[in-house]
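To whoever is on call:

I kicked off a structure prediction for a single chain this morning and the downstream step that reads the tokens threw a length-mismatch warning. I double-checked the sequence; it's 142 residues and nothing unusual in it as far as I can see. Pasting both halves so you can look.
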Amino acid sequence: MKHLRLDPERVKIVDRRSRLMEYVAKGITNNKELASLLNTSPATVSRDFLFVAKAASKNLHNWTDKMLPLSVKCLSVSTDMIMRKAWKLLEKSEHKDGLDERKHQLEILQFIAALNGLKRNFMVDYENVVLQLTSHRAVPLD
């Protein structure tokens, strides 16, 4: 197996950018303060911010374009499978008239109604999320 040699300068840059984001996550956003903490210049901090923002934007677009549709499809298929199973359970118990069976049927119908409501809410939320993600690009991609 071939050993990969890591460029020490590249490792240093990746580490600095990682530490930069840790400081930002802690609420430190002043370039001069960040530069002091990272032992670098404010200009380097600005370049690192731009690089990290572009990478994050690219990752978000990749997720939105590729992973989100697949996740939505899986969720939709799963919900449809659950819905079919619930309807089968209801149909199996429809010819039974006992009080416990009627309670069971009511629970199934309530579950189906709740599942339909969740699916409807998800579809509305999904459209809103996709609209927000695609209309407000934080950093234009080159």
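Update from on-call: the warning came from a stale cache, not from the record. Cleared it. Sanity check on the structure: Helices lie at 8-25, 31-38, 42-93, 99-135.
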